[in-house]
């Protein structure tokens, strides 16, 4: 989305330079990283920086080529072609962000191949046309390598056409700053939450599907900003969402309490 204020994103490494260089060269980009590490926010900031509209598609296993490209719809007794989000992005020269692309089936993502290479073209079989991507069009896909199943993995030929950017949870000082800004939290609460987050990430607790993301730490800070005690906030925003297993939850609570004592 293009807004006059750049969405708040704090760079951790050279990811902004890599993204903008790839964008200028018309190269597609793959963003890898765990949940809640800033992928979506990063793309929003980069779209703003590049001055291009952002069109986001949340991928899932029922997503069809027609969902991406478009379809004929019956409207008031007439059939009318309606562009899908990918086609709109190709026509408008927008950044098309396919979130969780590995969730989509391969027969859906084949349509990306000619778009992802030097041709930058989108064939639309139903219309019998092939569109050249407008200047500024950029394909960005994201996925979480931790979830990836071999079956759903991106095709090698597609992967090799892309520029990879790996994002992770930011280093402590940067994460503190992000939490303080995003939750309007004080520095001390932010620092405490970051210590908890890092401890949970290192705990490698079996039974945890995910580790504590920057997102859950921000949520905890928001509850604290509302006046909740840090322990209650951390249990509700960090421990609860991460597990349903009472034993694992008890372990997480112990980690949280230990760090709040300090
Ligand atoms: N580097 C950063 N700069 C600013 N904010 C950040 C940064 N990293 C994370 N955040 C914050 O963390 C929140 C979660 O990030 P975001 O939604 O972009 O994660 P994501 O990687 O897209 O997660 P998911 O895979 O679940 O979609 C954002 O709303 C933002 O507040
Ligand atoms: Mg996201």
TrEMBL record:
The keyword ATP-binding applies. Residues 29-162 form the ATPase dynein-related AAA domain. InterPro entries: ATPase_dyneun-rel_AAA, CbbQ/NirQ/NorQ/GpvN, CbbQ_C, P-loop_NTPase. Residues 175-258 form the CbbQ/NirQ/NorQ C-terminal domain. One of its GO terms (molecular function) is ATP hydrolysis activity. It comes from the Bacteria. Pfam families: AAA_5, CbbQ_C. PANTHER family: DENITRIFICATION REGULATORY PROTEIN NIRQ (PTHR42759:SF7), MOXR FAMILY PROTEIN (PTHR42759). Belongs to the CbbQ/NirQ/NorQ/GpvN family. This is Denitrification regulatory protein NirQ. It comes from Nocardia macrotermitis. The lineage of its organism: Bacteria, Bacillati, Actinomycetota, Actinomycetes, Mycobacteriales. The gene is nirQ_2.
């Amino acid at each position: 989305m293009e807004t006059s204020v750049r969405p708040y994103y704090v760079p951790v490494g050279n990811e902004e330079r890599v993204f903008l260089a790839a964008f200028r060269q018309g190269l597609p980009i793959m963003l890898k990283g765990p949940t809640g590490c800033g992928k979506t926010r990063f793309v929003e900031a980069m779209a703003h920086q590049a001055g291009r509209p952002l069109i986001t598609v949340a991928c899932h296993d029922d997503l069809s080529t027609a969902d991406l490209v478009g379809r004929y719809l019956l409207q008031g007794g007439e059939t009318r072609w309606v562009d899908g989000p990918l086609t709109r992005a190709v026509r408008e020269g927008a950044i098309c962000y396919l979130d969780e692309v590995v969730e989509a089936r391969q027969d859906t993502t084949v349509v990306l191949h000619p778009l992802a290479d030097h041709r930058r073209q989108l064939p639309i079989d139903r219309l019998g046309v092939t569109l050249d991507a407008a200047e500024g069009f950029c394909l960005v896909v994201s996925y979480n390598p931790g979830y990836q199943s071999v079956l759903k993995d991106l095709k090698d030929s597609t992967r090799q056409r892309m520029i990879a950017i790996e994002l992770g949870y930011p280093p402590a000082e940067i994460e503190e700053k992000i939490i303080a800004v995003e939750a309007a939290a004080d520095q001390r609460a932010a620092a405490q939450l970051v210590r908890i987050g890092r401890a949970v990430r290192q705990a490698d607790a079996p039974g945890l599907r995910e580790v504590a993301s920057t997102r859950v730490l921000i949520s905890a800070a928001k509850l604290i900003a509302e006046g909740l005690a840090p322990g209650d906030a951390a249990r509700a925003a960090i421990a609860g969402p991460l597990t349903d297993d009472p034993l694992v939850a008890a372990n997480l609570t112990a980690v949280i309490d230990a760090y709040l004592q300090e």
